[in-house]
């Protein structure tokens, strides 16, 4: 009987240890948080965005640096409206997988580490992919020329197009 | 004797499981890699840097966006020389802890998530802290005015100064 109790106790300890190992709980939540460089930011306005996107401003345009920059987190399926920038825009994709499309060109898949440029006064949109979130830093140069001109929302057909 | 063998076997299994749990090996290496957005880049020239820093270019200056950008990883103790930018510079600290100093001002501690601006034609230096690496994205706006003018190396006295 003593042997049975001892062995069972050891077995339960082993099972418990394995479970703790596979589900480290707090540790996982913490390392997820550590991966994020910036706070999630504010929910982007539905007037210019479809789905949930969060914007955290980093650099406000001024007359010295004439540059605006910020961080945007797009949840899967979320995207901004078609829009253009008088002096163009540069995106640095820092996490996940998303889409970018310049008007008249095929939709391109963009991934963590990619750099995307959209020329001045050319309409484009960007966002998460259908099945993954995407985070990017945006840079708008030469803001003395203007920052952004918003257009129509990106339809589901446009978002899901593979052409 | 059978009881001893069985218990010992269970005990070793438990110890082995705990060790595997604490030292997940490949898993840790993989998640470290996943944390890094960009490749480490090329070793920065000792002419302009003290210690080991690695530069990975992201955006080459051109006449359309007039912006240069890149990623720099500074190992603990590494820093760039004193230098200035004709149109200023913006730094986005994405990992670790480092130092930034504008000439005539105290050295400031900069951390992951911080945004640092240095005005046009003002001498400054940036790098890791003494005990931690630091990674930042740099943005140089209005590159039609020039990109960088290098000065003297940052001495150990300057680097370690707490004033």
TrEMBL record, chains A, B:
Pfam families: Cupin_2. Residues 72-134 form the Cupin type-2 domain. Residues 1-20 form the signal peptide. Transmembrane segments: none annotated. InterPro entries: Cupin_2, HNL-like_cupin, RmlC-like_jellyroll, RmlC_Cupin_sf. It comes from the Bacteria. Keywords: Signal. This is Cupin domain protein.
């Amino acid at each position: 009987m003593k042997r049975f109790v001892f062995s069972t106790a050891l077995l339960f300890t082993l099972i418990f240890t394995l479970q703790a190992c596979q589900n480290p709980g707090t540790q996982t939540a913490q390392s997820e948080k550590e991966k994020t460089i910036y706070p999630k930011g504010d929910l982007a306005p539905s007037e210019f965005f479809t789905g949930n996107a969060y914007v955290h401003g980093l650099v406000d345009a001024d007359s010295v640096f004439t540059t605006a920059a910020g961080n945007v987190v797009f949840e899967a399926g979320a995207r901004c409206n078609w829009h253009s920038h008088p002096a163009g825009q540069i995106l640095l994709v820092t996490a996940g997988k998303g889409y970018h499309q310049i008007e008249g060109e095929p939709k391109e898949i963009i991934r963590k580490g990619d750099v995307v440029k959209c020329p001045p006064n050319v309409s484009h949109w960007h966002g998460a992919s259908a099945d993954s979130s995407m985070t990017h830093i945006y840079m708008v140069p030469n803001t003395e020329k203007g920052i952004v001109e918003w257009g129509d929302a990106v339809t589901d057909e446009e978002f899901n197009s593979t052409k």
